Amino acid sequence: MPARDTRSNPKRPVAKASGFSLLELLIVVAIILIIAAIALPNFLRAKIAANEAAAASEVRTITTAAVEYNSTYANGFPPSLSVLGPPAGGGNAASCDNANLIDEVVAAGQKSGFNFAISGVGTANSTAATGCSLPGFGDYLVTAAPVSIGMTGQRSFCSDEPGEVYFDITGAVSTNATACENLPVLQ
C-alpha cells in the first residue's frame, strides 16, 4: 500500500476567520463619533429654541391669567405665581388663593428649563378682596429666565400690564417694569 500523504492539499482553499478586524471596528467607531460631533450641537440648538418658544408662550399664558385673575376676583393682579395655580390636592374648585388658571408645574416656578415668576409692582392694595388671603397689586411683572444660560436657553423673557412680551439676549432677569419695557419686543 502506498504511503498516505498527510500534508494538506495545496489546491484546496484555506478557510478565513469570520468577523471584523480591529482596524475595521475602529474606523466604524470613528465615523460614529464624527457624526455625533456634528449632530449634538444642532440638537442642543434645537432644544434651546424649543425651550425658549415654550417659555415665551408660558409668559403669555401667565400674563393672560393675571388679567383674568384681576377681573374675576377684583383683588388686583396676583401677589404670587402660586395663586394662579390649581388648589392643592388636585381639586377643581377655583378661588382667589388658587385660581386654577395655569398648570401646577408653572405655578411651582419651573418648566422646560426656565424659572418663572410674577411679582407685584408698587405697593400692594390696602386690603385683600373678600375670600382672598393676600391683597393683589395694581401692576405686575412676569419673568422667565433660563435655569442654565447656554444649556436650557439663551434669552430671558418678561411681560407686564400692557401684555407685550420682551426678551433679553443675555438671559438676565428684568428686575422692574421699566427695564423690561426697554428690551426688544418679541414678535
Q: Specify the overall morphology.
A: elongated
Average predicted confidence as pLDDT = 89
Strand order of the largest sheet: 1-2-3-4-5
Determine the strand fraction and express it as a percent band: 15-25%
Q: Summary?
A:
The chain is 33% helix and 17% strand.
What this model shows, in words?
The model has no long low-confidence stretch (mean pLDDT 89). It is elongated, with a radius of gyration of 31 Å. The protein has helices spanning 22-73, 104-107, 177-181, and strands at residues 110-111, 114-124, 137-146, 156-160, 165-168. Helix content is 33%, strand content 17%. With 187 residues, the protein is of the alpha+beta class. The protein starts with 21 loop residues before the first helix and ends in a 6-residue tail after the last helix. The protein has one domain (22-181).
Please specify the SSE layout and strand pairing.
Blueprint: H1 22-73, H2 104-107, E1 110-111, E2 114-124, E3 137-146, E4 156-160, E5 165-168, H3 177-181
Antiparallel strand pairs: 1-2, 2-3, 3-4, 4-5
State the main characteristics.
single chain, 5 strands, five-stranded antiparallel β-sheet, 187 residues, alpha+beta, 33% helix, 3 helices
